[in-house]
Here is the input.
Amino acid sequence: MFENLDIALSVKNLNVRYGDALALEDITLDIPARQITAIIGPSGCGKSTFLRCFNRMNDLIPTARVDGEVLFYGQNIYDPKVNPVEVRRHIGMVFQKPNPFPKSIYENVAYGARINGYKGNMDELVERSLRAAALWDEVKDKLKQSALALSGGQQQRLCIARAIAVEPQVILMDEPASALDPIATLKIEELMQELKKYYTIVIVTHNMQQAARVSDYTAMMMLSKEGERSGTVIEYDKTNTIFTNPKDKRTEDYVTGRFG
Here is the structure.
């Protein structure tokens, strides 16, 4: 399916439990580098839990237990010797609701790089990151102003700039446009197309049109069994195939709006 593409993330027999409750069941798939992979499916099937497996954010939930492997360019990020903080430096995350720090625009971008010991020219890094997030022209004259004064769409692009500033290889996006209006959403989608030249992007979205527009590959998630609360990936393929010629009837029903 991936022709000659590099594989950035490889998931093998992944299971996630919260206490005794199984949340994700037996997921195995590969995510190609410098492509956009969308994770879709009805509410409650574990999309965000799955996304958080890629940078060990589930570690922050005391009852969570992850079994199986997530390989990042061949290294299992769940190996006991691997530092989860280092994982998150390489695999950044943008959340559903824009969450800038209550600091200046400049400090929002510089903060992560600074605590990671960045030794280069900070002004250049801030400008480069804001340009990469298609925000520089809008904020270059107000870098000392509070990030909280920006519009919702600008705040979300600032959060993307903040993620880029620590120079990750993968950017995870959990419904990054769901709190934004259509114009701001379009800007985020256009930005993603630019960013995939340099980064691997994995996005969770409820918006079928958005998944069809922006992604190269799509993973369809459902509850693994009727009445169960554990989710799994039932189909994974090129986005065009998922939306026009899915193999699983449940995928067809979901993407055509017959249920979900």
Remarks:
- The longest helix spans residues 152-165.
